[in-house]
Specification:
globular, about 25% strand, 9 helices, binds alpha-D-ribofuranose, UDP-N-acetylmuramoyl-L-alanine:D-glutamate ligase, alpha/beta
C-alpha cells in the first residue's frame, strides 16, 4: 500500500480586488482604472490550489468570512481538503491589487480573518498531522512561531515562504524549516545583502545563515535556483510576455511541492514549477491564472526550458 505524505498548508485566503491601470499609482496621484474584477487570492490559497491542480495531496488550514464560502468551494472543487478551513464571523482577508500595462503589480493587504488563528486551533490542526507529513506556511497569517515549533516537535517537515517579507520573519525559528522558497528581495533581506546582488551571492549568504535548510530562489525571468549544502541546480525561465505576474510565485511553489510529493528529483520539480509559473503570468488574476496539470505537462513535453 502506498501512503502519500500529506501537505498541510496554514495559509491565507484573500479576496483579490484587481484594478488594471496604465501605471502603478504614484504618491498623491489619483488614477482611473480601466478594469476591475474580484477573484480568489491569498498566497496560501493560491499555493494550495496550485498544488491540487498539479495533482498533489493538500489540506488547507484557513479562515474565511462566512459570506465568502464560494472561495472554499473553488478550493474544494480543485481537490483541496478543506475540512480544516473555518468559516468565521470576521471579514475575510482582502488585497487591493493594481496591475499595470507591463504586467507588474502593487498589492495592499488587509489581513482580516487570516490573523485570527488561536493557539488551541493551531494545536488541534497539528494533532491531525503524522510524522513525515509536510507543513507549508507563508507570512500572511498569524501564529507562525506556534505552528513552526509544533510541527518541528511532531517530526513534520516545514516549507516556508516568507512572503510578504516583514521584520517579524527574523524572529521565526527558520532553522526548523526544511525548505525555504524566496524571491530576490526576500533572499536579500534574509541574507543581509543588496537586492541587486548576483544569484550566487544571494545563495552564498543564505547558505551561511541557514546551513541545513534547502533553499529555492525564484528570480522571475532569470529562472530559479535550488541549493542544499554544496549542491546547486539552476533552471532557466521560459521567455514569455507577462500579462499579470500576480500569483506566479505561488503557482511555482504549489507545482514544486506537488512534484516533490510525487517523488520527482529536484531538477524535475524546478522544471515543472518554472513552466507552470510561465503559464500563470500569461493570464490575468491570481487563482484564476493557475494552469492545470495537463496543460503544464503537454507544454513540458514540447519544450522543457533549458537548465
Ligand atoms: O501572491 C499573490 C497574492 O498576494 C495575491 O493573490 C494577494 O492576495 C496577496 O496575498
Amino acid at each position: 500500500m502506498t501512503v502519500t505524505t500529506m501537505l498541510h498548508n496554514l495559509g491565507s485566503i484573500n479576496l483579490d480586488h484587481v484594478y488594471r491601470v496604465p501605471h502603478l499609482v504614484a504618491p498623491g496621484e489619483t488614477l482611473a482604472s480601466r478594469e476591475y474584477r474580484v477573484g480568489l487570492g491569498g498566497k496560501g490559497a493560491n499555493q494550495s490550489l496550485a498544488m491540487a491542480l498539479a495533482g498533489g495531496e493538500v489540506a488547507h488550514w484557513g479562515r474565511l468570512g462566512r459570506q465568502d464560502a464560494w472561495a472554499r468551494e473553488i478550493l474544494a472543487r480543485a481537490g483541496v481538503d478543506v475540512s480544516s478551513l473555518a468559516l468565521v464571523d470576521e471579514p475575510s482577508g482582502h488585497a487591493i491589487i493594481q496591475v499595470d500595462d507591463l504586467g507588474e503589480n502593487a498589492i495592499l493587504l488587509f489581513a482580516g480573518a487570516n490573523h485570527g488563528f488561536q493557539p488551541e486551533a493551531i494545536e488541534a490542526s497539528l494533532d491531525t498531522t503524522r510524522p513525515g507529513d509536510w507543513l507549508l506556511a507563508q507570512n500572511e497569517c498569524n501564529g507562525l512561531v506556534e505552528i513552526m515549533e509544533g510541527a518541528h516537535r511532531r517530526g513534520v517537515s516545514i516549507a516556508f515562504n516568507p512572503a510578504p517579507m516583514t521584520d517579524s520573519v527574523a524572529s521565526l525559528p527558520l532553522t526548523h524549516c526544511r525548505l525555504l522558497f524566496v524571491n530576490r528581495s526576500e533572499a536579500a533581506r534574509l541574507g543581509d545583502v543588496e537586492p541587486s546582488a548576483s544569484a550566487e551571492t544571494l545563495l552564498d549568504a543564505l547558505a551561511a545563515k541557514l546551513t541545513d535548510v534547502e533553499t529555492v530562489l525564484t528570480l522571475g525571468g532569470e529562472g530559479a535556483w535550488y541549493q542544499h549544502g554544496s549542491e546547486r541546480f539552476h533552471q532557466a525561465a521560459l521567455a514569455v510576455e507577462p500579462v499579470d505576474t500576480t500569483g506566479a510565485g505561488d503557482t511555482f511553489i504549489g507545482y514544486y511541492l506537488a512534484a516533490l510529493q510525487a517523488g520527482l528529483p529536484v531538477p524535475d520539480c524546478l522544471a515543472r514549477a518554472t513552466m507552470a509559473a510561465a503559464l500563470c503570468v500569461q493570464h490575468p488574476g491570481a487563482a484564476d491564472s493557475i494552469p492545470r496539470r495537463d496543460t503544464v505537462e503537454s507544454l513540458l513535453a514540447k519544450h522543457r526550458p533549458p537548465s
